[in-house]
Amino acid sequence: xxxxxxxxxxxxxxxxxxxxxxxxxxxxxxxxxxxxxxxxxxxxxxxxxxxxxxxxxxxxxxxxxxxxxxxxxxxxxxxxxxxxxxxxxxxxxxxxxxxxxxxxxxxxxxxxxxxxxxxxxxxxxxxxxxxxxxxxxxxxxxxxxxxxxxxxxxxxxxxxxxxxxxxxxxxxxxxxxxxxxxxxxxxxxxxxxxxxxxxxxxxxxxxxxxxxxxxxxxxxxxxxxxxxxxxxxxxxxxxxxxxxxxxxxxxxxxxxxxxxxxxxxxxxxxxxxxxxxxxxxxxxxxxxxxxxxxxxxxxxxxxxxxxxxxxxxxxxxxxxxxxxxxxxxxxxxxxxxxxxxxxxxxxxxxxxxxxxxxxxxxxxxxxxxxxxxxxxxxxxxxxxxxxxxxxxxxxxxxxxxxxxxxxxx
Length: 409
What we know:
Blueprint: E1 21-26, H1 52-68, E2 72-75, H2 76-86, H3 88-98, H4 101-104, H5 106-117, H6 122-131, E3 133-134, H7 146-149, E4 156-158, E5 171-174, E6 177-180, H8 191-201, E7 210-213, E8 224-228, E9 231-236, H9 242-254, E10 260-265, E11 279-283, E12 286-289, H10 291-294, E13 298-304, E14 310-317, H11 318-326, E15 332-335, H12 340-348, E16 355-358, E17 361-365, H13 369-377, E18 381-385, E19 402-406
Helix pairs in contact: 2-6, 2-8, 3-8
C-alpha cells in the first residue's frame, strides 16, 4: 500500500501587507498572562488584567478563522518546544537570555542555569522561558543568597513574557528573509531571544537568512509596513528609534529587498506606540487610518539610486509620498469614526490595526463597529473576531500575527 505524499512546505516570503496570506506565526496566550497582577501590569505593559481563559477562547477564534480561510497557522509555543527538544545550542540561547546575573547575582544565576540545563522535558523548559519563575518557585535552596533574602517570594527571578502574543513585533519578513528586531522596553526585550532561537534552530526554518539584526538600536515590527513590493514604511516613535529605522533601511537596500523606505515620525505615547496603531493596509491601494493624523503624518523618503548610493528628502506629507513611492496616483483612505470621540475610542481599541488576508479582505475586532462599517462601505470584506481580553495589552489582529508567507500582488 502506497503512502500519500506529503506536500512540501510553502517557501517563506512576504513582499506586501495584503497579498493572500498563506502561513502565519501566532502565540496562543498561556500561563505568562497569569503572572499579571495590579502590582505589575503597568510594568508588563498591560492596561488591564486579562481573563486568561477568555483570551485563549478569543485567540482560538482568531486562529480558527485563519485556518478556515486556508492559512497555515504555526504556534510559537509548539515551535519553541520542538526546538528545545532537539537543539542544544537553542536551549543554551534561551537559558542564557533568561537568567540575568546582573539582577540576581552571579552565584544564584549559575545555580539556576545549571538547574535549567538539567531540565530534560522541553515543554517544562519552554514554560519557564515564557512564563518566568518566582523566588518561591526556585527548585533548590538558594542558601545564603542576599538577593533571595531581600526579595519577596512572589518577585520574579526570571521575568514572564505576557506580550509574546503580539508576534508581529519580535520578527517580521521582507521578501524571503526574516528580520529579528530589537524591542525597546525592558518588559519585552527577551522576547526576541525565543523568536531568534526558533528561526535559528527549528528545522522548518533551515536555510532561512536574516534581513536585519540589531542589538543596539530599537526597532519593532509593529512600526514596519510593506506598502508594496520594494516599498517599506517605518514608524519612528515610542518603540523604534531613528537609528533603528536607518539601520533597517540600509540593510534592506544592501540586500536589494527595498528601493524606497519612508520613515514616518509618530507621537511618542502609548496610544500610538507603533505605526500600525494609526494606519494599516487593507487593499493594494487603500489604508485604514486614524483621522487625527491623516493630514499631519509626514515622511522622510529614503531611496536607493541605480548606482547604489542613497538619497533622502522630506519631510513631506505621508499619503502622497507613499503613493508616489508605490507608483499609484493616490492612496484611498478609510478613516475611523464619524466624529472625533468615536475615532479616538476606536483607535484606542485597535480599529486601525487590521490584518489583511487578501486584497480587500481583513480581520478586525468586532467591537470597532463604526470603523468596520466604514470599511465595509468602502468595499472591504471585514471578518470580525472578539477581542475584549486580547486587546488588554493594546494590540489588534495585525499585532497578534507575524505573516511568514504571502502571495505576490
